[in-house]
């Protein structure tokens, strides 16, 4: 088989999902998949477009590209030519296209550790070399511009804010400095903004997007999290003008186009009032779970956005994979080990996703408390 | 930008589609997209599943994997463990996964020339080296086992039957010999069977799939052509057992999963009576168009399957791209130049897709006749 597979590890959470789903009476806090339904308007849009079975233009439905540009105008006060928006097969498709566009085999992509595991695997598939900048409680889980100096020959930097798995939202000044430093040294800046919309009481929304700081930043976003439409497999990228024609050629070849029904559904997804309601529910879950877990774990990351809590388990003196296995088998609670996201903190951290209703979270906390009280006997 | 883009050319037909759609009164014979609607059962299945918005298992809905295995049992009399079927984002997704699985950067993939243009571009994106075996009227547009000896260090061979752009269906003995020769020399055999079902009066269906000859062959197929569901972006691959775990890891990372609604829709797509009706309509179009074009072009490929006619234009002593441009602008008929599919025959061939109703085909033929009668004056 191909040598590019040597470096690729399973996306463990997907394996855990499968194991956990095969068991009875498990509370699922492992996968970052919204449990709340999308706006009813989406269902109506789908029902009205069931005969749309043709390919779309490779870059996507023009009306949807315009809608996305409008959304960025309204929410972030940035003016984007809709021509710069491309519809992709999930944010996954946007990562593949962006990485394939920007980096040759052997070139280096700077990522944070911890980070979403697929970033590095997209790099490995394309024989790009991922390089990792450690982030931790010491720097509030935010890469600093000054950190860049310690890495040579970086072609692109990829961050996410809000971050998976830590829940961190970058401070505006830190984000600005990072972007400016990248531009000064000709490093592409890629901003994964898939958890945008799910930010709890932080800086003005307009300061959260990389596009506020530079038109050269590459923004990746989609409909799987805030918009609650993971099954559509629909993401988008906002690219600098200079990359557009090459992005189109890659789209034509790699995907032909994004799924058609998904694009029609997404036209109806921008239902602000409804979405604010979803955010409020995630926030109340976050408020509850963060507090309820804090006696049992060292929570050194804030969970200011997204729907994850990154929790240190070192007091239990056990490897995180084994910890998750025990919690699943003995307490019926599925969570994800740090090893999915990290090398340097992997064994000491686990990730909770609050993508279940509050009553389930409460039940999960009871089970966890019970298990951890008797941890020595069950482990 | 990345050096991997140096070798990638636009998928010209997608550009032609865009130009042609922006014009008025054009007959579209350029894109290989079914114009006939899918089975009404698909629409019903979609309407009944509009609330299915979660990710599926990375390898796809189990019921659909079983359905595909059953389909291969019924139509080809081959017994496939459903575990070997993976649902992908179009056949495009299946190519990316298969190539990434089988070949390291620098390894060689043998393709035919002409062939579907994206094959070589998937290779370029992954820094795999595509190598081309010329096929032509001299060998009935079918690669022969004896041709393999002229190529060194081939890791995988990819063919398609029925073939795009030539319409060729491989003879069973030629297909068998190719597969056996590949196995004898440890070359992976990849069979693109996306045009299966659309075969007109040839050998028994059971002899058309590579799986009839070997369980080690890799079959790629999907719902975009025969099943008339291109917008679903849903394909599948049938892989040898030994590749399954690695394929799953790649699926998890590259796509998470195929679009969910598309998978539910596809469950209802296996409507044999309806699909036989579609095939009959394509066949009557083929019968008409092949005969109607034959006074004007040298048709040296048979169009035994799929929905394409590969036509030699050398009598007009003009480059195929220019020919297509003139036909579009002066006669209002959009077709695709050979340069999308070929190096060695590129300038002398064009491709017609009979994916429009018979009355439009007749009108197109009139326009073509009119244009070619006065070709010197319009060119």
Model description:
The structure is a homodimer of 379-residue chains. In chain A, the strands form three sheets. The first copy, chain A, has a seven-stranded mixed sheet, sandwiched between helices. A three-stranded antiparallel sheet of chain A has the order 9-12-11. In chain A, helix 6 (172-184) links the parallel strand 5 and strand 6 (188-192). In chain A, helix 2 (40-47) crosses helix 8 (260-267), helix 4 packs across helix 7 and helix 9 (272-293) runs parallel beside helix 11. Chain A has helices spanning 12-22, 40-47, 62-76, 90-102, 117-125, 172-184, 244-254, 260-267, 272-293, 320-331, 358-373, 375-378, and strands at residues 27-28, 85-89, 108-113, 129-134, 154-160, 188-192, 218-222, 234-238, 308-312, 333-334, 336-337, 349-353. Chain A is an alpha/beta fold and 379 residues long. At the A-B interface, helix 2, helix 4, helix 5, helix 7 and helix 8 of A face helix 2, helix 4, helix 5, helix 7 and helix 8 of B.
Please summarize the sheet with the most strands of chain A. 7 strands, mixed
Q: Count the DSSP helices of chain A.
A: 12
Mean of all residue-level pLDDT scores of chain A = 95
Calculate the terminal CA-CA distance of chain A, rounded to whole Å: 38 Å
Oligomer state of the chains in this structure: homodimer
**Order of strands, widest sheet of chain A:** 2-8-7-6-5-3-4
Biggest interchain interface, per-side counts: A-B, 68 and 68 residues
Alpha-carbon Rg of chain A, integer: 20 Å
Provide the helix percentage of chain A.
25-40%
Which strand-content bin applies to the residues of chain A? Answer: 5-15%
Q: Would you count the extended β strands of chain A for me?
A: 12
Unreliable parts of chain A: none
């Amino acid at each position: 088989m191909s040598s590019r597979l040597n470096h690729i590890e399973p996306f463990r959470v997907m394996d855990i999902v499968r194991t956990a789903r095969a068991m009875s009476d498990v509370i699922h806090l492992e996968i970052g998949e919204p449990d709340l339904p999308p706006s009813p308007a989406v269902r109506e849009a789908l029902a009205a477009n069931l005969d749309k079975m043709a390919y779309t233009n490779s870059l996507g439905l023009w009306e949807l590209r315009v809608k996305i540009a409008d959304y960025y105008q309204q929410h972030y006060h940035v003016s984007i030519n809709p021509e710069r928006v491309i519809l992709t097969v999930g944010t996954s498709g946007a990562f593949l296209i962006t990485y394939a566009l920007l980096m040759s085999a052997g070139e280096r992509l700077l990522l944070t550790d911890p980070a979403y595991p697929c970033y590095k695997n997209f790099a490995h598939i394309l024989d790009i070399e991922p390089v990792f900048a450690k982030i931790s409680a010491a720097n509030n889980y935010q890469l600093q511009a000054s950190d860049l100096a310690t890495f040579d020959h970086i072609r692109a930097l990829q961050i996410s804010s809000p971050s998976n798995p830590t829940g961190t939202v970058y401070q505006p000044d830190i984000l600005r400095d990072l972007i400016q430093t990248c531009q000064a040294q000709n490093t592409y800046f890629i901003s994964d903004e898939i958890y945008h919309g799910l930010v709890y009481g932080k800086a003005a929304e307009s300061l959260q997007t990389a596009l506020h700081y530079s038109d050269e930043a590459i923004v990746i976003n989609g409909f799987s999290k805030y918009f609650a439409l993971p099954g559509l497999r629909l993401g988008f990228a906002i690219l600098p003008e200079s990359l557009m024609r090459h992005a189109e050629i890659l789209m034509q070849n790699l995907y032909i186009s994004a799924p058609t029904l998904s694009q029609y559904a997404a036209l109806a997804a921008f239902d602000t009032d409804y979405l604010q309601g979803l955010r409020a529910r995630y926030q109340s879950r976050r408020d509850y779970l963060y507090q309820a877990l804090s006696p049992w774990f060292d929570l050194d990351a804030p969970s200011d956005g997204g729907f994850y809590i990154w929790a240190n388990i070192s007091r239990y003196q056990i490897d995180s994979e084994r910890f998750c296995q025990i919690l699943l088998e003995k307490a019926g609670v599925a969570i994800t080990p740090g090893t999915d996201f990290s090398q340097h903190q992997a064994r000491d951290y686990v990730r909770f996703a609050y993508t279940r209703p509050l009553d389930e979270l409460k039940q999960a906390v009871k089970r966890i408390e019970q298990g951890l009280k008797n941890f020595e006997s069950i482990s």
